[in-house]
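Weekly sync notes, structure subgroup
Attendees: PM, AL, DS (notes)

Item 1: joint prediction request from the bench team. They want all two components modeled as one assembly rather than separately. Inputs as received:
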Amino acid sequence: MKKAVVLLSGGLDSATTLYVAQHRGFECVCLIFDYGQRHRKEIENARTIAHKAHCAWQIVKISLPWKGSSLLDRKMSVHSTPTVHSIPLTYVPARNIIFLSFALSCAEAIGASGIFIGANAIDYSGYPDCRPEFYQAFVKAAGLGTKTGAQGRPIKIITPLIAKTKAEIIKLGMKLGVPYALTWSCYKGAKAPCGVCDSCKFREKGFREAGVRDPLIRKLGFEYVWKD
Amino acid sequence: MKKAVVLLSGGLDSATTLYVAQHRGFECVCLIFDYGQRHRKEIENARTIAHKAHCAWQIVKISLPWKGSSLLDRKMSVHSTPTVHSIPLTYVPARNIIFLSFALSCAEAIGASGIFIGANAIDYSGYPDCRPEFYQAFVKAAGLGTKTGAQGRPIKIITPLIAKTKAEIIKLGMKLGVPYALTWSCYKGAKAPCGVCDSCKFREKGFREAGVRDPLIRKLGFEYVWKD
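Output from the run, pasted for the record:
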């Protein structure tokens, strides 16, 4: 059975990506990153999702002591504020590059042929490491800098959601049986989603446009108060 | 003063690279990786070298539980053995990609304009992540996947030793006052260098061809028994 490494954050996109990978016939190993994010509760969600999907998972603990992001620094706000070139304060320097490099290492070591990542460049916060051109360039670098690449078997990086709207992702996930009630999106990581951060907004918009009631909200027994 | 992140392993090449960066007028922050390498003693050497060079340093502890390298797995041999496409067993999957991605993150967070890495594609073990074409491709990916890149200030990756022989590196380092007695190369990480692993061989060859007696060997009070 062909193997893949799946980057699993506990959010809606990565959970859908895991189910897409399984649907395409891959035996998946999920990497879950504990990088000091303030919404650490997503780690527990990720673990539960991997368990539910009958997948192996590995928590990778990394330290980014230089911070530089409101997701790592509790003194900064996670709310959208106008920033230079529209990159929000929640941007974590080189986060997806770090995640992908660990995934590459894992994929080479376990003999996986692909890495699945739920990056999305439509309903997203404008992070540069979510754009398709970044992934194309990273695949090239990875092919040149790894043993598998040098041996003519480069590891693929698969971004099945990159060109989908959040509503399209949710519709796809509903078909595949993704347990959205187990996913977590809010950057704040409190007991209930804040409904105000970028991540909550995209989630709410996605379910609304897909015409589906968010199973997480149903489970928690309340509705977002939508603030625009 | 312009800032740079320097990847410092405690070996001969990275120590020379640090001194080159300082000579070029950079204020340097050294990243030292603790990744479960069997020659962990190099970490202490790296710290001593950074201290000697009056540099800030940060130890980055990472875990690669999937192993896949004789540098991580003590049951495997670190000695050169013929392997597929000449990539030795000491190759650590995607190691330099991981190191560079942390360096990128740090550089963005502290406002550094460059990353120095002592990769060398002449007297080296044939690791794919030491080749110039890999660095060119990685710079491109990094430019596309980071905030600084998206804002038109991509972080440079500087490989000052990439095309030098080990003897040339040593001659340059001697001029710059690199404290080679404080560096450590042997993969085995015992009290004294084994003199047999690839890393010892390249070091011995370098000092011999440079016509310099290795200050580490002088300090330890003995000579390699050169085995070819």
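Discussion: Strands of chain A lie at 3-7, 27-34, 56-61, 114-116, 156-158.
Action: AL to compare against the crosslinking data before next sync.
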